Amino acid sequence: MAQLELDGLVKTFSDGSDEVVAVDTVNMSLNDGEFLVLVGPSGCGKSTTLRMVAGLETATEGDILIGDESVIGKEPRERDIAMVFQNYALYPHMTAKENMSFGLKMTTDLDTEAIEQRVAETAEMMGIKDLLDDPPKELSGGQQQRVALGRAIVRDPAVFLMDEPLSNLDAKLRTKMRTELKRLQNELDVTTIYVTHDQTEAMTMGDRIAILDDGVLQQVGTPLECYHRPANRFVAGFIGSPSMNFIQAAVEDGSLVHREFTYALSAETAAQLDGYEDVVLGVRPEDIQLSTATGPEQTVTATVDVVEPLGDLFHVYVTIDGKQYTVTVEDGADLRNGLTVGLKFPEDTIHLFDSATGTAIK
Ligand code: ATP
Asked: Which keywords label this protein (predicted)?
């Protein structure tokens, strides 16, 4: 167990004459035993960050500390970390048991009996006791991932690094393994960075999540902090499903003015917009109140485009001034395409962003 700190971490790759900044001055501090999910779109630098911590990639600048000790310059095997990959990376010619024991034989001075015992205990914990003599090709994807996790756990490292470990599993198994992995990590209490591009995985698994875009860390916070108080428009759009709706509006006399509506703000919110000529209004699909009544008590009138029933909920796609927005409602059975509806944006749920920088104002 250990704290983990990334201090001004930079990675640039030379691509012919071009230089790609894959990771741009990332600062991050994980508490002992914390499960931090590093999330962001494809190509934002998640894997590169993780690979630098693992020692598989050299940092261009910055420091990485495990406990109080810098691991820059240390070989991967000297870093007391265990990594789990998306493609499991099991040795094909070894049985599950040999896969799990191999790292221990190479990096510890435990004797054969002690190794056997640790592998057996871990296999029991992972529910793979009966698979120990099988080679990877005889195991299903889910079983292979259990062996890969078992191989990481058995080493009892200071830090776990996981790079999209559930991506190759089907949706149902992924949800099951998500819960299991979270429970295991809780039990083992090992400091963990878990990389994913899937915001649902991030929201459900992370003690905290770190959101990366274009190599730059956008926000680090608990899932609910990032959901309720996104630091900027990128985080607001990335966290939450379906995504937050954004509407550009002018600021005039304490109101947001759009071609289709004028939204009178409270004095308190209006004061926050002092000096702004325009802003981006953000409103989550689940925060919009939709009604078939239209009138002055509604924020805006919209036309229903498509209604998607999900069982417990409906996603309703509506058009305002030629642009499509999403609304989530519980009761959408009577909604039809082409219907005119009223939408209300309760002020305590709206977000406001600087239209130039994207920084959150409210
Ligand atoms: P994904 O989810 O698609 O794996 P990611 O967020 O993990 O994406 P990285 O793989 O870390 O992103 O890549 C970050 C950026 O660095 C990308 O622009 C990528 O093209 C670039 N990059 C990564 N590895 C190299 C390399 N070895 N040489 C040159 N560029 C690289």
From this structure: ATP-binding, Cell membrane, Membrane, Nucleotide-binding, Translocase, Transport
Total structural domains within the chain:
2
Whether residue 219 is found in the same domain as residue 283: no
On whether both 56 and 116 belong to a single domain, the answer is yes
Given a cut of 60, whether residue 49 has pLDDT beyond it is yes
Q: Is the CB of 22 under 6 A from ligand 1?
A: yes
Q: Is 56 in the pocket of ligand 1 (CB under 6 A)?
A: no
- Check pocket membership of 332 for ligand 1, CB cut-off 6 A: no
To test ligand 1's pocket by mutation, which of 11, 17, 44, 87 has the most ligand atoms within 8 angstroms of CB? 44
Concatenated DSSP letters for 217-235? EEEEE-HHHHHHS-SBHHH
Q: What is the pTM of this model?
A: 0.93
Question: ipTM for the complex?
Answer: 0.97
The residue nearest atom 29 of ligand 1, judged by CA position, is 13
Q: Which long-range contacts (CB under 8 A, 24 or more apart) does 216-225 make?
A: 216/24, 216/25, 216/26, 217/26, 217/27, 217/28, 218/40, 220/28, 220/36
Q: Ligand 1, from 23, 26, 48, 213: best to mutate by most atoms within 8 Å of Cβ?
A: 48
Share above pLDDT 70 across residues of the chain, in percent, rounded to a whole number: 100
Domain residue limits at 289: 245-354
**Which of 238, 259, 274 is the endpoint of a domain?**
238
Answer with the one of 207, 223, 238 that is the final residue of a domain.
238
Query: Which pLDDT tens digit goes with each residue over 325-337?
Result: 999 999 999 999 9
pLDDT tens profile 102-156: 988 887 788 999 999 999 999 988 889 999 999 999 999 889 999 999 999 998 8
